[in-house]
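dumping this here before i forget
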Amino acid sequence: MSTADAEVVRADPIFRRRFLGVLLLLAVGGAAAILALHFDLEATRRLADHDPAQALAHVLWLLEAVSSVTAVALILFGLYGLRLANRVYRAERYPLAEQRVLRDTPVERGKQARRRALGIGVTSAVLLALALLLPYAM
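structure:
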């Protein structure tokens, strides 16, 4: 099948706008969290001059909080990816028939779709492994 005859799933403009809105909210929230963390660490540095043990305990608590949020995000992305990989592998089609896409995407079928599913599955498994190993890295 030539590229001119290839089936293409058209981009969904409403989905794209919503995705960009969520991405913007995440960026603003992340920037606010980094700013708050910066001020908190500055206060902790000043605390270290008076009570180093309490400052160390606070820094360790911050590390646990940040790693917990990161682990939860990695677990969610990993589980979603494994579910998507399983569905793509079974359907032998990527993107799935009911899947909305951000940009025009050529449809892959058969061996190409299974290969895509394997790539998604391996990446998702690595994310899950990282999320599960993250607490032991501290």
